Amino acid sequence: MKYTAEMDAQRFHKLAEELAGRDPQLAARLREVREAARDLREHAFAAVEAFRQRASELGASYLGHIDVSAVEPDDKHVDAVQFKIARGRLELLCIAIARGAGKTRLVGPFKRGEKEGPCAESVLRGPEVEELLEERIAALVREAAEV
């Protein structure tokens, strides 16, 4: 059965205009937080690579099966972007939020499909958020290595 009713494009144009008009500066703020999130993602990737390399040197390459995703739109909010660090079902979310001056929220590590947490918030850039991210990555790696 083929559906033949025509779509009212004007209706959706108006909806886009309405929603985009709610916060006209959001696109610019999202570009800023996306850049900060990409920098943090590179920091996370470097930490995971350092761990992976040393584990491999020690004959424990099985410890290094950790993925760092690309920066992508946040799963829950239009004013944020995120990336994930995962090992099996364990996940750590790094969310860069464009609200106000911008901030970073780290969620986890937690088991995918279960309650998310713990959460911590920090600045968008700098040593404070990098240290917090490293601590959470270490916690994920430790938890993933438990037998």
Describe the structure.
- This protein has 147 residues and is an alpha+beta fold.
- It has one domain.
- The protein is 44% helix and 22% strand.
- It has helices at 9-21, 26-57, 127-145, and strands at 67-68, 72-73, 80-87, 90-97, 103-111, 119-122.
- Strands 1, 2, 3, 4, 5 and 6 form a six-stranded antiparallel beta sheet that branches.
- A hairpin with a 5-residue loop joins strand 4 and strand 5.
- The radius of gyration is 19 Å and the shape is globular.
- The termini are far apart.
- The relative contact order is 0.14.
- The mean pLDDT is 94.
Strand content: 15-25%
Biggest sheet overview: 6 strands, antiparallel
Topology as a string of helices (H) and strands (E) = HHEEEEEEH
Helix content: 40-55%
Radius of gyration using CA atoms only: 19 Å
The poorly predicted ranges are none
Our measurement of the CA-to-CA distance between the termini, rounded to an integer number of angstroms, reads: 53 Å
What count of helical segments does DSSP give? 3
Shape: globular
The average pLDDT score comes to 94
How many strand segments? Answer: 6
Number of domains: 1
Structural class: alpha+beta
SSE topology sketch:
Layout: H1 9-21, H2 26-57, E1 67-68, E2 72-73, E3 80-87, E4 90-97, E5 103-111, E6 119-122, H3 127-145
Antiparallel strand pairs: 1-3, 2-3, 3-4, 4-5, 5-6
Helix pairs in contact: 2-3
Provide a concise account of the structure shown.
The chain has helices at 9-21, 26-57, 127-145, and strands spanning 67-68, 72-73, 80-87, 90-97, 103-111, 119-122. The chain is α+β, with helices and mostly antiparallel strands.
